[in-house]
Write a sequence for this structure.
């Protein structure tokens, strides 16, 4: 088996995956039946994967290529990959079974890169599908036990092969497990050796035995095997007795469980060691650098194949690679890590996002703000950021004997705008919004493309309102959030309501009133949600919303937070009906989170194949020969005059020009030959619909405008 550190499939697994997919196309693979969850859609985090679904696809006929004729009904894996862009994101492998043959559906139940496309009538019939539904740690205790035991088996294998290695911790995680070792760096060859040793341990069917010992006994045993990290872990365990799990009589670890009964309960063909990474002990850069081995484990081989295919698809969609291929953005070493350069094409998409965001906010009664990127350090003392957030802030700078600070948040600025004058209760609600760039210190090792950066633009807004207005304002934010997210193709959410933690500011009555208002707003909206008891911020309850992308991954974007802290710190007030000074309620909210991170999510959601209205270049005009170049330039100018983003490419043979446009994922190509010049027309090819025939330029422009207005393809 070839296992690669970069996460690509081994040759064996590629062959096995292709075989499995071929069988799936023929309908010969046994699978579990499952249904798709409605709500399985971070700050700056890479998402947690939700429920992964592998759906078996019958043989399909595809026709989206502009260069190739329709292929015959294929059984080859490449046809499955080519169908991805026509399937709904979370249904990458839909099996569509119809009398008279199978097809690649674009029904309302399986929309992908163009969520708003109205499907053909015949495509809207209900499809019969079978799916492999990958379990999660929450849905399957068996899987959780397998993964936890795999971590122990891997640690045992490593110490058998490398006796000098010191063990630390080895938990289960979303897609598998990992274990951290203090040892020399490992190579791909070393991972192969570890996996083979794991297979031997599993095949021996060794029992896992739980033992309870006193703290002193645990210390003696740890000292006997010279495991200093385990001693530190033991000191952090508050309760007695101490539990130990043994694998046979050869290896043991401090552990609370749970585990499988014997190693034979693990399917060794459903395990893959994925990669090695460096990790600081306890996450502290001043502590030892450890070797972390990541692995994935499943209940059976079929689930592993589905996961590996999902992983390869996620790699294909990686926004860092696509951003470079499509020339959307970059992070320049000369400028510093975590600082994003928006290239012309990426900047166009950003402009569209910002313009859409601003129009919706203005229509919903928000006033736009622009505020400075820097302020006196005293402002951050008042807000409390210097006390509670200093490690995430850049160093202060001296300006004329005063300390200034790059802003990590926009909130204090919006409060200063509120405080510029005395407000009456009649003024409420007051809604202000800003696309404000903030700067936060992140360790270089934690930076990740657009997902974790040091400078980013938040879509920040604050609402100042009365207590009896909280519910209506929250409901308004929920409606606004849905409206914006639907614009960009996100319709599936996971919603969490977090309530008062043990330590909090504000009295019980206002917490109860605010929490009930959030619940009532969610109930009124009709959204299902989970309650995280005690998970709120110290300053107020909150609603967090995660969006589900094309692969079913969940991304924390939207948040709504009631704040009892900053109004008190800044002593903001209003005059009530009795001419008394009262303190208003303050609501923080963001919909997209940050433009950088949301753009990264968009890139991966669409795999760079943006819908027509959002694409940085909507039309590429292509002359058959350079003799048509003048007419092509005239067509492009007319398109631009009508607000359509167009460009002319020439200097190559037409097939290469078309291939290049395909690689750049341009939605529309207008091909111009001698006949088109004579008739004052263009021949149109669409990435989504194939050949559209010959159109007059005015008709072409009109159809593009209608498609963009209705968020559909052409």
């Amino acid at each position: 088996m070839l296992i690669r550190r970069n996460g690509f499939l081994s040759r064996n697994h590629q062959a096995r995956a292709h075989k499995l997919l071929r069988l799936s196309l023929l309908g010969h693979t046994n699978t579990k039946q499952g249904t798709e969850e409605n709500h399985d859609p971070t700050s700056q985090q890479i998402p947690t994967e939700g429920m992964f679904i592998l759906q078996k696809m019958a043989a399909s006929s595809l026709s989206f290529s502009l260069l190739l004729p329709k292929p015959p009904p294929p059984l080859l894996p490449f046809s499955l990959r080519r169908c991805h862009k026509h399937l709904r994101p979370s249904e990458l492998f839909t099996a569509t079974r119809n009398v008279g043959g199978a097809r690649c559906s674009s029904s309302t139940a399986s929309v992908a890169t163009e969520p708003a496309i109205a499907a053909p009538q015949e495509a809207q019939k209900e499809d019969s599908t079978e799916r492999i539904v990958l379990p999660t740690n929450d849905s399957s205790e068996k899987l959780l036990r397998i993964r936890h035991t795999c971590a122990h088996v891997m640690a045992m294998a490593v110490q058998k092969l490398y006796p000098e290695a010191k063990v630390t911790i080895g938990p289960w995680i979303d897609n598998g497990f990992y274990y951290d070792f203090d040892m020399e760096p490992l190579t791909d060859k070393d991972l192969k050796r570890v996996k083979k040793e794991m297979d031997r341990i599993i095949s021996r069917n060794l029992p896992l035995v739980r033992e309870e010992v006193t703290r002193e006994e645990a210390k003696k045993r740890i000292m006997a095997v010279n495991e200093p990290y385990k001693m530190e872990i033991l000191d952090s365990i508050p309760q007695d007795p101490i539990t130990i799990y043994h694998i046979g009589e050869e290896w043991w670890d401090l552990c609370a469980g749970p585990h499988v009964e014997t190693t034979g309960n693990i399917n060794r063909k459903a395990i893959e060691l994925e990669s090695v990474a460096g990790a600081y002990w306890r996450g502290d850069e001043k502590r030892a650098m450890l070797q972390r081995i990541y692995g994935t484990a499943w209940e059976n081989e079929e689930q592993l194949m589905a996961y590996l295919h999902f992983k390869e698809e996620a790699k294909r969609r990686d926004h860092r690679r696509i951003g470079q291929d499509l020339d959307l953005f970059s992070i320049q070493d000369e400028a510093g890590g975590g600082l994003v350069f928006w290239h012309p094409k990426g900047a166009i998409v950003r402009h569209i996002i910002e313009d859409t965001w601003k129009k919706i906010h203005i229509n919903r009664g928000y006033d736009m703000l622009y505020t400075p990127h820097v302020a006196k350090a005293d402002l951050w003392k008042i807000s409390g950021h210097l006390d509670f957030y200093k490690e995430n802030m850049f160093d202060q700078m001296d300006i004329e004997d005063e300390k200034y600070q790059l802003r990590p948040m926009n909130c204090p600025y919006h409060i200063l705008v509120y405080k510029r004058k005395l407000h009456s209760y009649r003024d409420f609600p007051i809604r202000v919004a800003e696309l404000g760039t903030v700067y936060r210190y992140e360790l270089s090792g934690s930076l990740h493309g657009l997902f974790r950066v040091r400078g980013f633009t938040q879509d920040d807004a604050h609402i100042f309102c009365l207590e009896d207005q909280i519910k209506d304002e929250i409901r308004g934010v929920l409606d606004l959030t849905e409206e914006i997210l639907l614009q960009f193709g996100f319709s599936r959410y996971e919603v969490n309501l977090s309530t008062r933690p043990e330590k909090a500011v504000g009295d019980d009555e206002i917490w109860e009133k605010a929490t009930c208002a959030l619940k009532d707003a969610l109930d009124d909206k009709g959204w299902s949600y989970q309650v995280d008891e005690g998970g709120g911020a110290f300053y107020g309850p909150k609603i967090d919303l995660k969006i589900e992308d094309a692969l079913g991954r969940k991304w924390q974007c939207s948040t709504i937070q009631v704040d009892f802290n900053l109004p008190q710190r800044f002593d903001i007030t209003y005059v009530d009906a009795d001419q008394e000074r009262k303190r208003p309620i303050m609501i923080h909210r963001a919909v997209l989170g940050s433009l950088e991170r949301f753009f990264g999510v968009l890139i991966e959601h669409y795999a760079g194949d943006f819908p027509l209205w959002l694409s940085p270049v909507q039309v590429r005009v292509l002359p058959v020969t350079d003799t048509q170049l003048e007419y092509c330039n005239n067509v492009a100018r007319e398109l631009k005059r009508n607000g359509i983003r167009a460009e002319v490419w020439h200097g190559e043979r037409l097939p290469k020009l078309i291939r290049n446009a395909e690689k750049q994922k341009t939605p529309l190509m207008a091909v111009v030959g001698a006949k088109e010049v004579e008739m004052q027309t263009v021949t149109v090819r669409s990435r989504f619909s194939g050949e559209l025939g010959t159109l007059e330029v005015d008709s072409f422009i009109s159809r593009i405008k209608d498609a963009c207005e209705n968020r559909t393809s052409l």
